[in-house]
Amino acid sequence: MRAYIRRAVVPAVVLSVVLLTGCGVSDSDEGAAPQKSSAAEAAVDEPAQEPSEEGHTPTPGPSLGLASGHRTFSVGETDEYGENYKVTTKMSVRVLDVKYMTPTELDDAKALTLAEFDKTNESEHGQYLTLTLMLENVGDAPAKITTYGMMKWQDANHAAQDATTLESVGGPALDRTYVPGQSVIGVLVLDVAAKGGTVSYYGTNDPSGEPAFVVTLPIA
């Protein structure tokens, strides 16, 4: 029985020595800070870079009047989600005539060009005017122009308001798709609150909200 006990104790002592030797810490390691790997340091020292995004820079359109001659503005398009606007072509605009009219005077103008027309109603905002423009595609791609609902009038005393009407005095329509080199002279009948002020065109799909061009109207 004693011999059995002696054989069991010896391995236990050897095992304890091995465990203590494996878990020992040298004097040089005491108090040393844990070492970081170079990969970990690179991850901490180099912050992630944000992806660069090129946004569309809003650019106000040109201002013009009766004596301004031609001015050029950009026409573009967005993707199916209404984003990523890009300029596709250029248009030229020139103001040829501005006339303030009463409903009766507008009826007289219609009688010169239209075989059948409805009598003009009273102006909703206070004053009719006819704006004769020359539009030309001076770019390399087709341009769709839509003025109805896209012409806003304002002055120092009135906020911007839709000035378009369904009235017409005949002649070529300005609302159309212009192929490169095509030009059209047409007349818009607008309804404004007073003489003077400005009329701005917003029909270019530019999400910046800047008008494509601004017409300064005479006060008489």
Pick out its properties.
alpha+beta; about 220 residues; disordered N terminus; single chain
What would you note in describing this structure?
By secondary structure, this protein is an alpha+beta fold. 18% of the residues lie in helices and 32% in strands. It is built from 3 helices and 11 strands; from the N terminus they run H-H-E-E-E-H-E-E-E-E-E-E-E-E. It has helices at residues 2-22, 38-45, 103-113, and strands at residues 63-64, 71-77, 86-101, 127-137, 143-145, 151-155, 158-162, 176-178, 183-192, 198-201, 213-216. The strands form 3 sheets. The chain has a 5-stranded mixed sheet, with no helix packed on it. A hairpin with an 8-residue loop joins strand 2 and strand 3 (86-101).
Strand content: 25-35%
Helix content: 10-25%
Helix/strand structural class:
alpha+beta
Strand order of the largest sheet: 1-11-10-6-7
The geometry reads as: globular
What is the strand tally?
A: 11
Q: Sheet bearing the most strands, described? A: 5 strands, mixed
The secondary-structure element order is HHEEEHEEEEEEEE
Task: Please report the number of helical segments.
Answer: 3
Rg for CA atoms = 39 Å
- The overall average pLDDT, rounded, is 80
Cα distance spanning the termini: 130 Å
Low-confidence stretches: 1-30, 36-56
